[in-house]
Design goal:
The protein is mostly helical. The chain is about 70% helix and about 0% strand.
């Protein structure tokens, strides 16, 4: 029988202060959120929303999403109905933000214009995430010739400027929401695939993946159940930041006439239509352009915030 039934008295005495210090440190960290018990305090404990730019960005994104979802129901004005009341200024009766050159309510157009832009941004980002993550998983796990072929194709796609690739894809398929989603999604997938491949290659060398392979676990199950959950943190953060690029592309292509087509309200097209009145009615350009810019900036701050919270190893 082994006589090492537990730590010696001296070792226990040495460990006790350390344990107490660790407990005090954890208590201090829990208390650093201001002692709140609500969900904001819980989010801060998880490292989310720990800075003012991140908090403001989260609030703005939630407000924009709620506006896109329920705003069109609450706004009674028709965003495409033309009237004789053209270019009314701020604060006009029945038109808080005035009207455009065709007499359409500017507030209604801004609210209704959020939905198509966000739909294209989210749908194209989801497509890019699926394609990029899938290619990166396969390349990083398989290695060898499979990795070389896939990543050389990715490098070839990255050799083209993304905006030119989007324009080529959308122009080939014709303007419209579907072609815009596919074009933006395909053009953004290569960047995500490189990150996915690097993360997958790192995880493939870990002991838990080696043990799963030696145990006879099938490749799809290893990829989905073992590797994907362990790379999800940094991938989610990068996908949120990619969302800002997708929104910028969607607005830019609508400005060029290759995106969402009129009379559907869209922030990008509203900038293009209002530039003729930039000096006489600058709000027609400034408001949709500012909302698009703020959405892009907020996505970047939120992506940074998620990266710090979900992938602390990458920020150490």
């Amino acid at each position: 029988m082994s006589d090492h039934t537990g730590p010696s008295l001296g070792a226990a005495e040495a460990l006790a202060p350390a344990t107490a210090s660790d407990g005090a440190l954890r208590s201090a960290r829990r208390g650093s959120g201001g002692g709140g018990r609500g969900w904001p305090a819980k989010l801060r404990q998880r490292g989310i929303g720990t800075s003012w730019p991140a908090i403001v960005s989260w609030v703005f994104l939630v407000a924009i999403l709620l506006t896109a979802l329920v705003g069109p129901v609450l706004i009674s004005a028709d965003p495409v109905r033309q009237t004789s009341s053209a270019l009314l200024p701020f604060g006009s009766p029945g038109h808080p933000l005035g009207t455009d050159d065709l007499g359409r309510d500017e507030l209604a157009r801004l609210v209704h214009g959020a939905r198509p832009l966000l739909f294209v941004a989210f749908a194209s980002t989801a497509l890019a995430a699926a394609l990029g993550t899938g290619v990166g998983l396969l390349a990083g796990y398989a290695g060898g010739a499979v990795e070389q072929v896939l990543m050389r194709a990715v490098d070839l796609a990255l050799a083209f400027p993304s905006i030119l690739l989007v324009i080529l894809l959308v122009a080939a398929a014709g303007p419209g929401t579907t072609s815009l989603v596919v074009g933006v999604g395909v053009s953004l997938a290569p960047g995500l695939s490189r990150l996915s491949r690097a993360l997958t290659a790192r995880e493939t060398a870990r002991d838990y993946v080696v043990a799963a392979r030696l145990g006879g676990t099938r490749t799809p199950r290893i990829l989905v159940q073992e590797i994907l959950p362990n790379i999800a943190g940094p991938m989610v953060a990068q996908v949120v930041m990619t969302l800002s690029v997708a929104a910028g592309f969607a607005a830019g292509l609508s400005y060029l006439g290759l995106g969402i087509q009129p009379p559907t309200p869209d922030w990008g097209y509203m900038v293009q239509a209002g530039q003729e009145f930039l000096y006489s009615a600058p709000r027609l350009v400034v408001l949709p352009a500012a909302l698009t810019l703020l959405f892009v900036v907020a996505c970047n701050f939120v992506g940074d915030d998620l990266r710090d919270a979900l992938d602390p190893k990458g920020t150490a």
